[in-house]
Amino acid sequence: EYATALEKTSAELAALQAHHERGTVTAAQVKEGQENLTRAQARYNDALADSSTKLQAYGDAQKSVHTLITAGLNLELKQAEASERIARLLGKETEAREAVRKQREIEIKLAEAKVKSLQDEADAMEKLARAQEQELLAKGRMTEIDQVRISNSLRAAEAKRQEAQAVEAGIPAMQKEAEL
Fold it and tell me: Of 38, 57, 101, 132, which sees the most CB atoms within 10 A?
């Protein structure tokens, strides 16, 4: 909505300037149009900055959720490993095999959680980089260093996606192993 308001105000200023050249609008009216455009640009810039901040906070929140999920699954895995050791010590091979099967299931869940975490992190990195890029461009403050930083963030996001694909590619093998 701020981008639309900015475009509209910019078009209004262009029209005022054209009318001023024909003498149908005063310089004061053109100046007022310029001030309106400045205010619209400031609101747009603020909205972009808020967007970047919100995206960063959302990405951090997602990361925390994934950390909690992974911690819970790791706890389950340790419990299953302990169950296996106890069963073996007591000579209960059926229970030990069941604990090993449970470990494989948890390992698959861990891999799936890692894929989701990497994909979400990649998405958050890309969205944040794009928002920062828009903000800098809108403010006219994009430097070569900023361009390199944004480009690096986008490449890092792509690397996270590829890492997610690599982990995901291994899941079918883990599932087959769990079935044995």
Answer: 132
Model pTM score: 0.72
pLDDT value at residue 165: 98
Residue 173 reports pLDDT greater than 80 = yes
Q: How far apart are CA 79 and CA 106, in angstroms?
A: 11
